[in-house]
């Protein structure tokens, strides 16, 4: 049996759940609150662009328009 903490596994599961939600959108229709939340969780622009089948430059532009910082 592994000693992986259930708390850690639940956090990973939540990240995968959010990834699957983001994958249902395109860069053009991603809700601002969801973009903000993904950035708060630590998803990179590169990860988000892959989830959205978009180029990596679209995400910083979207953040700029939505007034969301990169941190």
From TrEMBL:
One of its GO terms (biological process) is UTP biosynthetic process. PANTHER family: CAD PROTEIN, CARBAMOYLTRANSFERASE FAMILY MEMBER. Keywords: ATP-binding, Ligase, Nucleotide-binding. One of its GO terms (cellular component) is cytosol. This is Carbamoyl-phosphate synthetase large subunit oligomerisation domain-containing protein. Residues 1-71 form the Carbamoyl-phosphate synthetase large subunit oligomerisation domain. One of its GO terms (molecular function) is dihydroorotase activity. InterPro entries: CarbamoylP_synth_lsu_oligo_sf, CPSase_lsu_oligo.
């Amino acid at each position: 049996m592994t000693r992986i903490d259930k708390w850690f596994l639940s956090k990973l599961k939540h990240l995968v759940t959010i990834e699957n939600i983001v994958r249902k959108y395109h860069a053009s229709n991603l809700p601002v609150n969801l973009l903000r939340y993904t950035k708060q969780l630590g998803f990179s622009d590169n990860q988000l662009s892959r989830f959205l089948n978009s180029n990596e430059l679209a995400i910083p532009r979207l953040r700029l328009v939505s007034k969301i910082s990169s941190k």
